[in-house]
Amino acid sequence: MLRTTLRTATQSASTGRRAYSSIKPVYTAHATSTGGRQGKTSAPEAGIPELTLGTPKGLGGKDDHSKSNPEALFASTYSACFIGAMGLAAGQLKAKLPPTVTAMADVSIGSPTDNSGGFKIAATLRIPFDSLEGSGLDRSGAEELLKKAHELCPYSRATRGNIEVDIKLE
User: Fold this and answer.
1) Residue ranges in 16-153 assigned as alpha helix (H)
2) Which residues fall in a compositionally biased region of kind Polar residues (predicted)?
3) What tens digit of pLDDT does each residue of 37-90 get?
4) Around 45, how many Cα atoms within 13 Å sit in the side-chain half-sphere?
5) What is the pLDDT of residues 88-145, one digit of tens each?
């Protein structure tokens, strides 16, 4: 066992990639950021060009909508990932997820209410019921779909127990 672990660690070190003990990766995304909130980020291998980042007005930055920020990027990726999990859940529930399904994510950053210092984030995912038209699900079935998707979604799993996440069927 130790020999395997050392071999894996050595192979990983030589390729610059990490070996994980909790998953067998089928895809790994690579992104590079420089300069923090006032810098740039990109993921060229995934078709994401260099994005200019800026601090949001609420955190003392300018009201510059030409720049993105970590919270906006997280909201975008979480909502997209959640739709993927909804598709998986729909299959398990013998429902059909329509191509018009929509998920909107609101990611907030602020001071922890326990006064522990620093910042925390919280997220709300909002799914319009009418975007599920054609799925064959009534409102109760749609609620079950969202519950199941929240159990399956990799982002939901990563955030579970770490940040507050609300899922709302509107």
Assistant:
1) 70-92, 139-152
2) 30-41
3) 999 999 999 999 999 999 999 999 998 899 999 999 999 999 999 999 999 999
4) 6
5) 999 999 999 999 999 999 999 999 999 999 999 999 999 999 999 999 999 999 999 9
Tokens of 18: 């990490």
Q: How far is CA 50 from CA 20, 40, 70, 130, in A?
A: 28, 6, 14, 35
- What predicted TM-score, i.e. pTM, was given to this entire model? 0.86
Which positions ≥6 away from 33 have C-beta within 8 Å? 39, 40, 41, 42, 53
In terms of Cβ atoms closer than 10 Å to its own Cβ (0-12, 13-18, 19+), residue 84 is: middle
Domains of the chain are: 33-68 (no CATH), 69-169 (3.30.300.20)
CA neighbours within 13 Å on the CB side: how many for 124?
8
